[in-house]
Write a structure and sequence with these properties.
35% helix, alpha+beta, 4 helices, 20% strand, GMP Synthetase, Chain A, domain 3
Length: 96
């Protein structure tokens, strides 16, 4: 059976194409729920104008369903409330 921890490990393999860091470490994932064979993800982008947004959603869905065949559907909801802000650790990594 898939656990939330399993899903987090998969999300750590999905890299933002602009920042070259995974979506989990970036803090783009706000909520992650597993309901039987459906995964629900509440996430944001680094900016509402993110040109890679649709691709990033597909990458997340594909990563989860490719790794866990028992997951029948991945629902990704996008929110900008609150807007994404990098943590102090990320600011240090990016040099800002």
């Amino acid at each position: 059976m898939v656990t939330k921890e399993d899903l987090v490990e998969v999300l750590k393999t999905v890299e933002d194409p602009e920042l070259f860091m995974d979506v989990w470490t970036l803090g783009l994932i706000y909520e992650l729920e597993l309901k039987k064979d459906i995964v629900e993800v509440l996430m944001t982008f680094t900016t509402p104008m993110c040109p890679y947004g649709p691709m990033l959603i597909d990458m997340i869905k594909d990563a989860i369903t490719d790794k866990y065949k028992e997951v029948k559907e991945v629902k990704v909801e996008i929110t900008f409330d609150p807007p994404w802000e990098p943590s102090e650790e990320l600011r240090a990594v990016f040099g800002v």
